[in-house]
Specification:
One of its GO terms (molecular function) is oxidoreductase activity. The chain has helices spanning 31-43, 59-68, 97-111, 130-142, 156-169, 192-198, 228-232, 242-260, 265-275, 289-296, 305-314, 335-338; strands at residues 3-5, 12-14, 16-19, 48-50, 77-82, 116-121, 146-152, 176-178, 202-205, 281-284. By secondary structure, it is of the alpha/beta class. The mean pLDDT is 94.
Length: 340
């Protein structure tokens, strides 16, 4: 598998990154099988793994740590995240120095490692000054516990604000961004991806299969497949809603394009994400070995220009069919902030 630069960090990452969100109780609770999945990904040439403290309440990090024990840690670029609510404690979340310092120690223990290659803020905390967060992250880099820092699902304006803050205050800057990006969720092409290019940031995209919509299981005339995501976010999987119907029509058209090109929809979807010049690596999140095998082949796919043009005709550049899939809303647009 080919490798690409992670922005200007000097770190090289595999074109595909193993996302570990589905490892543990939230996806695959069988630890032995999950470890085998990690090992298969490593054997296939994937050298980058992305997890988070909140995935299955730390269970994902524990599985990854177990899988990398015994000498496999040095060959892996290991990324994890902090910031989403870990439990009911109001101080076990966000970007405060108190929580960042506490959380990184717990992640290091669960991952069975002395350092984290990329430590990411899962979401910027509107209740915390970004300088407070960057200051804590800068100390972790100076201490050698973290090699580089990044963020996830941050609007372009806040990416720029964080870059300015780091420059003016002498902090470590966010070196990477992790946005959702897929054939159905192309909004980041408008501003986030160009902003990352301008600032020399690496980009690790997540959800290239649009939360399951691009697996080939969502087709007109078929019942909606049962999934945990649909249970958690029913509005995003309502096939009778206007946005649901638009996504279903697009999924049908894209599946037809893939078949005409001799590809699976999964292969075309992941290959499309990798085609953007800002993208360093695409995070895939398989729950089973079968899922992993179906996604590995995408790294070898080259999409011709005429196929890209036909894709653009189905979902125009910069378009996200369902705004809820963007996963990022300016704090100023939340319901609480709009109250008069």
């Amino acid at each position: 598998m080919d490798h690409r630069p992670l922005g200007r960090t000097g770190i090289a990452v595999s074109e595909l990154t193993l996302g570990a969100m589905m490892l543990g109780g939230a996806g695959n609770p069988d630890h032995d099988e999950a470890v085998r999945l990690v090992h298969r990904a490593l054997d296939a040439g994937i050298t980058t793994i992305d997890t988070a403290d909140v995935y299955s309440g730390g269970e994902s990090e524990e599985i990854v740590g177990r899988a990398l024990a015994g000498g496999r840690r040095d060959g892996v670029v290991l990324a994890t995240k902090v910031g989403l609510p870990f439990d009911a404690d109001p101080n076990h979340r966000g970007g405060s120095r108190r929580w960042v310092v506490q959380s990184v120690e717990a992640s290091l223990r669960r991952l069975r490692t002395d350092w984290i290659d990329l430590y990411q803020v899962h979401r910027l905390d509107p209740a915390t000054d970004v300088d407070e967060t960057l200051g804590a992250l800068s100390d972790l880099v100076a201490q050698g516990k973290v090699r580089a820092v990044g963020a996830s699902t941050v609007p372009a304006s806040e990416i720029v604000e964080a870059q300015w803050t780091a420059e003016r205050r002498g902090r470590e800057r966010f070196r990477t961004e992790q946005p959702p990006y897929s054939l159905l969720v192309r909004g980041v092409e408008t501003d986030v991806l160009p902003t990352c290019l301008r600032h020399g940031m690496g980009v690790l995209t997540y959800s290239p299969l649009a939360g399951g919509w691009l697996t080939g299981r969502y087709r007109t005339g078929q019942d909606a497949p049962a999934s945990r995501r649909a249970g958690r976010f029913p509005a995003r999987y309502d096939l009778s809603s206007p946005t649901g119907r638009r996504k279903l029509e697009a999924a049908d058209a894209l599946a037809d394009l893939a078949a005409e090109a001799g590809l699976t929809l999964v292969e075309m979807a992941i290959a499309f994400v990798l085609r953007h010049p800002a993208v360093s690596t695409a995070i895939i999140g398989p729950r089973t070995l079968e899922h992993l095998e179906s996604q590995l082949t995408a790294a070898d796919v080259e999409l011709p220009e005429d196929l890209l043009d036909r894709i653009d005709a189905v979902v125009p550049p910069g378009t996200t069919l369902d705004p809820a899939d963007a996963m990022s809303t300016s704090p100023a647009l939340t319901a609480a902030a709009r109250r008069r």
